Amino acid sequence: MISEAKKYLLRFGIPLAAMIAMIAILRPENIVLVVYKMCLIVIGLVLCELIWVISYKPVFGRIEELETYEKRSVLIFRGILYLAIVLGITWGL
User: Fold this and answer.
1) pLDDT at position 62 over 80
2) Assigned domain for 14 exists
3) What is the pTM of this model?
């Protein structure tokens, strides 16, 4: 239980602390733009998860059941998918 808490604390706590620190050093007119971009990134990640679950997960199945090379290929594809969607949304494409 504690290791799960540490995993999620590292996964979400450190980026959240970095975002708060970054917002604290910005000028007030820049805070709105940074919060807007952060919201776009969150929307992109949610969209990525939905696309993965609806379109690709039924094809590839559970990642834990794949062999080593298949797992690498699927995770690289998933990373490229996430990168493309998040960059597309944040760049306004």
Assistant:
1) no
2) no
3) 0.62
